[in-house]
Amino acid sequence: MSDWIEGTKPRYLECIYETSTDFDLEELGIDWDKVDDYYVKYGSLTVKFKDGTTQDYDGDEGEIDYKWAVRENIFDEGWTLVEGLN
């Protein structure tokens, strides 16, 4: 922990966690051959079908595992990454 550059004192520790949202296409009755386009926003799947119709689906949201962060960042008082600690 002593590798940080002089004058850039660590102030903030940011922990990034990961989760997932799953969509069972078979269970939702989505025939992928009929899908023209799709996007996921706020945990909901919007599918535009080749026939021009659009349908929204709610996902199966996983729980966040707060046991282990996938990434940690250390910032100085100006929210600049502290070199040597990230």
Structure write-up:
- The protein has 86 residues and is mainly beta.
- The chain has a 3-stranded antiparallel β-sheet with strand order 3-4-5, with no helix packed on it. A two-stranded antiparallel sheet has the order 1-7. It has a two-stranded antiparallel sheet with strand order 2-6.
- The mean pLDDT is 89.
- The protein has 1 helix and 7 strands, in the order ββαβββββ.
- Helices cover 5% and strands 37% of the residues.
Helix content: under 10%
Order of strands, main sheet, comes to 3-4-5
User: How many strand units?
Assistant: 7
- Percentage beta strand: 35-45%
Contiguous uncertain segments of 5+ residues: none
Label the structural class.
mainly beta
Q: What's the helix-strand series?
A: EEHEEEEE
Query: How is the main sheet built?
Result: 3 strands, antiparallel
Helical run tally:
1
Oligomer: single chain
Number of self-contained structural domains: 2
What is the average per-residue confidence, as pLDDT, rounded to a whole number? 89
Rg: 21 Å
